[in-house]
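Before relying on records like the one below, remember that each one covers exactly one chain. Contacts with other chains, cofactors or solvent are not represented anywhere in the record.
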Amino acid sequence: MGGLLQRNRRCSSSSSSSDIPLPLFLVFFLAIFLERSLGVVSALEYSKDKQPSSLTLENIKKYLSNINKPAVLSIESPDGDIIDCIDKWKQPAFDNPLLKNHTIQMLPPDMPRVKGDENNSSRKNEERGEISGWGKQVWHQNGTRCPKGTVPIRRIKVDDVLRAQSLHDFRRKQPRKDPFFNVTVDDPNTHEYAIVNSNPEFVVFGASAKINLWNPFTEEEEMSLAQIWFIAGDTIDLNSIEVGWQVYPRLYGDSGTRLFVYWTADGYQSTGCYNLECPGFVQVDQTIAVGATLQTSSPDPNQQYEANVQISKDSTNGNWLLTYDGIQLGYWPSTLFTYLSESAEIVQWGGEVTNLQLEGKHTITQMGSGEFPQELFGEAAYFRKLRVVDENDNEVLPSGVTVQVDHPNCYNLDLYNTDAEDSPFFYYGGPGYSPTLCP
């Protein structure tokens, strides 16, 4: 979710969601879709302390039969995941009434690119050591790949849903009370951030960064992630697109580091979800599965892993295109959004954790590598080469930059502009609980 920050409101054609009306027939179809979805959700409320009833299990299986499409080929992953190769025209995205009669966009090869950038190559830095791409996912280990014309989708299992309080909780991030975005829930202190914000004077049509990969310790009910956020709108109409890596045992059932995507069009209330767990994100690549475990992390100071994550808005149709380490992975159709159908207002890069204080004290869930930023390269996690895309489709240095750190004694961030190639870049993270500094 977007972090807290102050910004100057600018008048634009997208200053109010009421300025962007949806066609009446789309509103009608969307209302039916949401009514049916909410009907299923209401039947799936349960507690981890109670055994689910046979009716609950039946309803969960009904939901899964809708979201898990018939597979052309299924691949068993060593980590317990099953990756289904789904006909790209039958993927979950097309169950969304807003995508009725949608034509899959094959992503253009000329997306905005940082001048002189390398996407997926290893390089040797005399001061830093070896840096490599995030590389393969665990399900690649047996050598089987999805055939042409299909896309790999992680199968959702009954146990995945049972770990959450409800299907609604399973699919979505939990919002919090936020004095900037005015999103209200019961507990405002659940999420903590160490992030860099860019709130430029121009409208934003994309952003990118190279994100260092780690596998932080995470308490069972909590999560830790590193991501890029795109944000537009406010109050209940907040639009957000999010991409990065995360460790989230409650969602995935293990402590692996996974590639993820997320979106919402109404402040994390009833729209959007992680990965492909609801209709929205359209996948086009047949080699990378969102939600699947990444095979490598960076515990060796001399061998670091990073990925170039880039999102940019197609100037012809408004779709938000995702490129991961040079692979054109997929996109979010502009019709999913109100404010983001036009442009983004704010970009954020950094880390987020949940702190549920399960034992009456601050969590020991780590952010980044679990080390504070002053430990620097090889020990602390980093983002480098932060860029934004302007209205002329050029990647430029971010402007209107601020830093947000909620609890610096638990997690912190140090921003640098000293390296001509990598700037701006930052180290971030921390261990969480400390008896004296982070009680």
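Confidence is low (pLDDT under 50) at residues 1-22, 24-47, 113-128, 176-187.
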